[in-house]
Amino acid sequence: MSGFDKRWLDLREVADHAARDCDLRRQVIDHVMPAGEGALVVDLGAGTGSTFRALSPEALHWRWRLVDNDPFLLAEARNRHGQSARIECVEAQLSDPAIDLLSGARLITASALFDLVSEEFLVRLLAQVVQTEAGLYAALNYDGVCRWDSSHPVDEEVVAAFNAHQRQDKGFGPALGPTAAPVLRALLEEQGFKVAMAPSPWRLDRSHAELQRQFVSGMATAAAETGLLAETDINDWRLARLERAENSGCLIGHWDLFAVR
After folding, report:
1. Which domain holds residue 189?
2. In 10 A of CB 70, how many CB atoms?
3. N or C: where does the chain have the smaller number of CB atoms within 10 Å of the terminal CB?
4. Residue 23 forms part of a structural domain
5. Out of the domains of life, which is the source (predicted)?
6. Are 175 and 117 contacting, i.e. CB atoms less than 8 angstroms apart?
7. Which CATH number is 28's domain given?
8. CA of 18: how far to CAs of 24, 141, 193, in Å?
9. Is the peptide bond before 57 cis (omega within 30 degrees of 0)?
10. What is the CA radius of gyration of the chain?
C-alpha cells in the first residue's frame, strides 16, 4: 500500500504475523491447496510481500501476483523473493484495480488495507471478485480498540480523535476505518459469500518497543490533525507513551476475515 515506508512495514510484520488468527489461516490454506501448485493468489496492497511470508511455507507452492501502487515497495519484494519464478510483481493503482489483475485467482488477499478504503470501493471491488469465484482473505482490519497496560488521562480522547482521522479519505473515498470488518462482512453476505471472522489484535510488549513508539507517534500526529484535542494534551500524551514504551504493553484491535462463495 503506497504511503508506508519499508521500516514501518518491517517493524509491524512480527506483530502482524503473531496476530493473524490461526484457524482462519488454516481455512485459507485448505481452500487453496486443492487447486495444486498452479493456484494463483492475488495480493492487493502487497507491499514487500508480508502476506506471502505469513502464509509460507505453504505459499511457496502457489503462484503469487503481488499488486501495489508503490514501486519502491515492490522493488523490495523483488529483492527479497525475486529468485522465485512463482512471484509476479505488478504496479497498479489500487483505487481502481483492473479485472484482469484478479483473473484466474483462487484467492484474493489484502492485509491492513480495507480499513483505509470506502464502502463504495468495496462494492466495486466485490463486483469484480464475484466474477473470479475466488475466496477473499482480508486480514488485520483495524477495529478502533487501543488499550494500554498503564492508563493516561487522555487515552480515550486521543483514541477517539485517531479513529475519527481513520475515517478520512485515504485515497479511496471516505475511509471505513474501525467499521471496515463488519461492513465488508455485510457486503460479502449480500453477494452470497459464507464469511468467517476472528479477532487478530496486536499484543505488544517491551519486545515491540520501537513499534510502539512508531505507532504512538503516528497516532498522535493523526489525532492532532483532527483538531479535536488541545495540542498541549496531545504532546503530553505522546511524550508519556514514548517514555513508557520500554516498560508497558498495549493491545491494538484488528479482525481477520475469510469468505468463499
Report:
1. 6-146+174-204+250-260
2. 21
3. C
4. yes
5. Bacteria
6. yes
7. 3.40.50.150
8. 13, 14, 27
9. yes
10. 18
